[in-house]
Design brief:
- It is a single chain.
- The strands form 3 sheets. This protein has a 10-stranded mixed beta sheet. Strands 7-6-11 form a 3-stranded mixed beta sheet, with no helix packed on it.
- The chain has one domain: Glutaconate Coenzyme A-transferase.
- The relative contact order is 0.18.
- The chain is an alpha/beta fold.
- The protein is 15% helix and 31% strand.
- The chain contains 4 helices and 15 strands.
- It is globular, with a radius of gyration of 17 Å.
Length: 229
C-alpha cells in the first residue's frame, strides 16, 4: 500500500484508453448503461457494434456524444453531455427508465468510483474527507444493485496518489459486493472469491509498482499481460 500520499503518481494509459478497454468487455446484443465520467467515453468506441445504450434520463439506443449543430440539450448522458440518437432510438419517462433498471434488464453497467474494495464493494457518491457529494445515492444505487454485470472504469489513484482500490472502502457505500471487474489507467482486475485477480497491467508498470499504489492485496494471474485494446 502507498503510505505517502505525496508520492509520484504512476503514468498509466489515458482516460480515453480506459474507456476503450472497458468497451471490450461489452458484448453485442447487450443493453448497457454508462455512468458519469470515464464511462461516458465508451459511447465513442462502440460504433458499428450491436450494443444498445440506455440513459437513465429516459432514452434508449443512444449514440456517441454530439458536437456542434448536432448537440441537443434534451438528449444527454449521465454527465449531462449531449449525445446523438441512433436510428430506432426512443425517449420515455424516467419512471419507465428506472423500471428497466430496477427490473434487472441491463446486461452491464459501467460506472466510475471514488473507492472499490477487494470484495467488490463500491463507494461512488460521497467523499467525507473532502466534503464532496456527487449527486445523491439513489440512481447509482439502483443501477449497481440491479446490474447483471458491474464494471468500474476509473483512475487507479487519487490526484495526490492515494489508492482507490482498497481492502475495505472507507467512504459510504453505493453497493456491496456487486463489482465484477475494475479497469483503471494502470490495470485490469477481476473480483473473485479469493480476492482481486490482476489480469492485465499498463505498459512500463511493474507488479511491485502497482501493488505500492494499491491497498488491496493483488493476486497475479498466471497469464498476466499488458492491457489489451
Amino acid at each position: 500500500m502507498a503510505s505517502d500520499s505525496k508520492m509520484k503518481k504512476l503514468e498509466g494509459i489515458p482516460r480515453e484508453m480506459i474507456a476503450l478497454r472497458a468497451s471490450k468487455e461489452l458484448q453485442d446484443g447487450w443493453y448497457v448503461n454508462l455512468g458519469i465520467g470515464i464511462p461516458t467515453l465508451i459511447s465513442d468506441w462502440i460504433e458499428g457494434r450491436d450494443i444498445i445504450l440506455q440513459a437513465e434520463i429516459g432514452m434508449i439506443k443512444c449514440g456517441p456524444m454530439a458536437t456542434g449543430d448536432a448537440a441537443d440539450q434534451d438528449l444527454i448522458n449521465a454527465s449531462s453531455q449531449p449525445i446523438t440518437a441512433l436510428p430506432g432510438s426512443a425517449c420515455f419517462d424516467i419512471v419507465e427508465s428506472f423500471t428497466m433498471i430496477r427490473g434487472g434488464h441491463m446486461d452491464a453497467i459501467v460506472v466510475g468510483a471514488l473507492q472499490v474494495s477487494e470484495k467488490g464493494d463500491l463507494a461512488g457518491w460521497n467523499n467525507p474527507a473532502r466534503g464532496l457529494t456527487i449527486g445523491v445515492i439513489g440512481g447509482s444505487m439502483d443501477l449497481c444493485a440491479n446490474a447483471k454485470r458491474l464494471i468500474v472504469a476509473m483512475e487507479h489513484t487519487t490526484t495526490t496518489g492515494e489508492p482507490k482500490v482498497l481492502s475495505k472502502c472507507t467512504y459510504p457505500l453505493t453497493a456491496k459486493g456487486k463489482v465484477n471487474m475494475i479497469i483503471t489507467d494502470l490495470a485490469v482486475m477481476e473480483v473473485s472469491s479469493k480476492g482481486l485477480l490482476l489480469k492485465e497491467i499498463a505498459p512500463g508498470i511493474t507488479v511491485e509498482q502497482l501493488q505500492s499504489v494499491t491497498d488491496a492485496k493483488l493476486i497475479v494471474a498466471p497469464g498476466l499481460k499488458e492491457i489489451e485494446f
